[in-house]
Amino acid sequence: MTYDDDNGGGRQFAAGLLIGALLGAGVALLFAPQSGEDTRRLIRKKAKRLAAGAQDRFDDVKDRIRQARRKAEDALSD
Questions:
Q1: Over the stretch 2-39, which tens digit does the pLDDT of each residue have?
Q2: Cα separation of 17 and 42, whole Å?
Q3: Is the dihedral of CA 35, 38, 42, 48 positive or negative?
């Protein structure tokens, strides 16, 4: 299996890189020399940011799907 842009390999690589970075950041937070309360607060803040980013991406994908559906419906009705 090759990873070229035609098959979405670039997106897969970017997704893997992002997941790896998030896991690395999580491990770093767990081993950071700070109090447990500070670490939990930091994890909570980062999790909220990550959730908001995921929601934004989801909304973008949803909008793109709606646009594609409208285009397809317009093309079929012509």
A1: 544 455 667 788 888 888 888 888 788 777 777 778 87
A2: 22
A3: positive
d(CA 67, CA 4): 27
Residue 10 CB-half CA count within 13 A: 3
Q: Please answer whether residues 30 and 39 qualify as being in contact, where contact means their C-beta atoms are separated by less than 8 angstroms.
A: yes
DSSP symbols for 4-22: -GGGTHHHHHHHHHHHHHH
Distance, CA of 40 to CA of 29 (rounded, Å): 9
Largest CA distance in the chain: 65
Per-residue pLDDT, 36? 77
